[in-house]
Amino acid sequence: MTADVAARAAARPGITASSRGRDWRVVPMLLPYLWEYKWRVVVALLFLVAAKLANVGVPLVMKDIVDGLDSKQAVLVLPLVLLVAYGALRMSTVLFAELRDVVFVPVTQRATRRIALAVFRHLHALSLRFHLDRQTGGMSRDIERGTRGISTLLSFMLFSIIPVVLEFTLVAAVLFAKFDWRFVAVTFAAVVVYIAFTIGITEWRTAIRKRANELDSRANTRAVDSLLNYETVKYFNNEDFEARRYDDSLQRYEVMAVRNEASLGLLNVGQAAIIAVAATLLMILCAQGVVARDLSLGDLVLVNGLLIQLYIPLNFLGMAYREIKQALIDMERMFSLLEENREVDDAPDAQDLPEGPATVRFDNVDFGYDPRRQILHGMAFEIPPEAKVAVVGASGAGKSTLARLLYRFYDVTDGAISINNMDIRKLRQSSLRGAIAIVPQDTVLFNDTIYYNIQYGRPTATREEVIAAAKAAHIHDFIVSLPDGYEAQVGERGLKLSGGEKQRVAIARAILKNPRIMIFDEATSALDSRTEQAIQKELNAIARGRTTLVIAHRLSTIMDADEILVLDQGRVVERGRHAALLAAGSAYAQMWALQQQEDAQRRIQREPAAVMTTPGTSP
Questions:
Q1: Spatial contact of 552 and 390, defined as CB atoms under 8 Å apart
Q2: Matching CATH topology for 5-338 and 443-514?
Q3: Residue 480 and residue 499: Cα distance in Å, rounded?
Q4: Regarding the domain delimited by 443-514, which CATH topology (the fold level of the hierarchy) does it fall under?
Q5: Domain 5-338 adopts which CATH fold?
Q6: What is the dihedral of CA 486, 489, 492, 496, to 10 degrees?
Q7: Chain-centroid distance, C-alpha 154
Q8: Which of 121, 308, 466, 612 has the most neighbouring CB atoms within 10 Å?
Q9: Would you call 393 exposed, middle or buried from its count of C-beta atoms within 10 A (0-12, 13-18, 19+)?
Q10: What does the radius of gyration of the chain's CA atoms come to, in whole angstroms?
Q11: Helix, strand, coil percentages in the chain from 3-state DSSP, rounded to 5
Q12: How far apart (Å, rounded) are the C-alpha atoms in residues 358 and 519?
């Protein structure tokens, strides 16, 4: 399957034979979870059988009670004993059903939890390419419905399908033992027609429900995307536009939802008609037997009771089948996420990165996010232990791509990236990424406290270590000035903080991680000049003793780099130290001159007016 799951899912039309096969294929995936709790499943099934035996026993006892109360043969003691037995059977039906549920609940909850965790882990293991293509709102809705469908499927399969089959067998046995073949024939024919009708209509309805789910996911995707981009919506005064787009999706869903309910009405009416015809035929046969004195009044009560015992769960079977099919559809969408190709995965013989200083080498690396558009061409450079290499260039030159490849968010198209002469494709990703910390240009924070977001760099860090990292990033004073201090909430994606504040949180987080390899991806781009100068000293201190890759826009921040690479359209066009590159008078020197000119203009604009005015005077 390709990366854009939601887009493909939205494009899927109605139901086909192959899609039905895909729906049912998720059932074997649940068997390991049932097997893990096999003793609970067995005990639950035993309680189920006991409940159904008690249920079928109720009309049998009722027949004897009615016959015992016949004026011609009434005996006071017998009906009292049977009435007590009747009450005990009624109580047993409920008791065993509840015990069954109590025993089986841990099975469904554990299966739901473990599968949801497997999907969550798998999503985190997928490549950055998948996450750039995903539609968060629709995907989250698919996962929500899928996990809910697990509980539905397990419960209905074991406690609806099996009970109906068992009850039908018991009722058929009683009818065959106490009445002639016509009763069994009518009952069997009615059940066969009922099931065939239910399955046929439900398959038709499934296509409608599936389409409704797709439209629901699409509407949710639009809503989440719009709310995540709240500020952009406001900037362009597009509230009404977003509302119309959302309403358009809701209208489409509304049409399918109405059609779904109408088809449900047709199904219910058809089921009721089949049951009514069968019940009428059986009661006619039974009434004829009573008139002919071949059957007693108690037999009439028995047949009616058996019909109720059979057709109520049979009517429930229709709903159970619909829910099972819906659960399968919902789970199929969720399990399709598990089939997404990881693209970047650990090799079977992957190793941990050995301890000690790290040498990073890019060896003739070619790469493109799309095979039709190559980004990097023959990228080759080395960062020795404790050295700092800076990369500069125009936007789109491929600077940030270097960091993504080093983190192994993607694998190179050609060439290799190695650390201490070990190809990173032969390293465990957890070990590789554990040795690297990045301060990104665009910092996105969790919707939690400032403390949580800093501690995320090393979740086991103490409070003192978190505060020390915040001080090193020059954000401690700002934090303690807030009413809630370190417990202040940063909001969705950190929107309550300014760009500079978010970037300093990211710097503190990287400091706390204490890695061997540091990546600064335009780490001070959102800071003012004064704060940038202060933090630049801290960044230099942090980089000391570590292998450091700096992706820079402001050339003044990388003057002390051991080597500077100038990129242009994915190729290194210049390399050397700051002074040598300036002396060469080429691309780097031009960039330096341009930035110096821009800085000079900004300083002029910030200078106070040459002539100051005071109250009562004029310039």
A1: yes
A2: no
A3: 18
A4: Rossmann fold (3.40.50)
A5: ABC transporter transmembrane region fold (1.20.1560)
A6: -80
A7: 20
A8: 466
A9: buried
A10: 36
A11: 65, 10, 25
A12: 13
> How many CB atoms within 10 Å of residue 67?
20
CA distances from 548 to 111, 192, 398, 469, 472 (A): 45, 73, 18, 19, 18
Residue 361 has φ and ψ, to the nearest 5°, of: -135, 130
Interval 134-163: pLDDT, tens? 666 566 767 777 777 777 777 777 666 777
CA atoms within 13 A on the CB side of 573: 16
Q: In whole angstroms, what is the distance from residue 167 CA to residue 306 CA?
A: 10
Which of 143, 210, 168 has the alpha carbon at shortest distance from 52?
168
pLDDT digits (tens, 9 = 90+) for 47-61: 888 887 787 777 777
Query: What residue type is 551 in one-letter code?
Result: I
Token output for 483: 């009413």
Cα 546 to Cα 288: distance, rounded to the nearest angstrom? 97
For the chain, the domains span: 5-338, 357-435+517-605, 443-514
Q: Which token pair is 349? A: 């013989």
Q: Tokens 């074997």 — which residue?
A: 28
Lookup: tokens for 62: 């009722």
Regions of the chain where pLDDT drops below 50: 1-21, 74, 76, 609-619
Amino acid at 243: A
Which amino acid is present at 590? Q
Cα 416 to Cα 361: distance, rounded to the nearest angstrom: 8
pLDDT for 132 equals 62
- How far CA 223 is from CA of 240, 337, 419, in Å, comes to 13, 22, 43
Locus of tokens 């018991």: 170
State how far the Cα of 596 lies from the Cα of 619, in Å rounded to an integer: 33
**Distance between CA atoms of 392 and 522, rounded to whole angstroms?**
10
Tell me if residue 139 falls in helix, strand or coil.
helix
CATH architecture under which domain 357-435+517-605 falls: 3-Layer(aba) Sandwich (3.40)
DSSP output for 158-190: IIIIHHHHHHHHHHHHHHHHHS-HHHHHHHHHH
Residues across the chain: 619
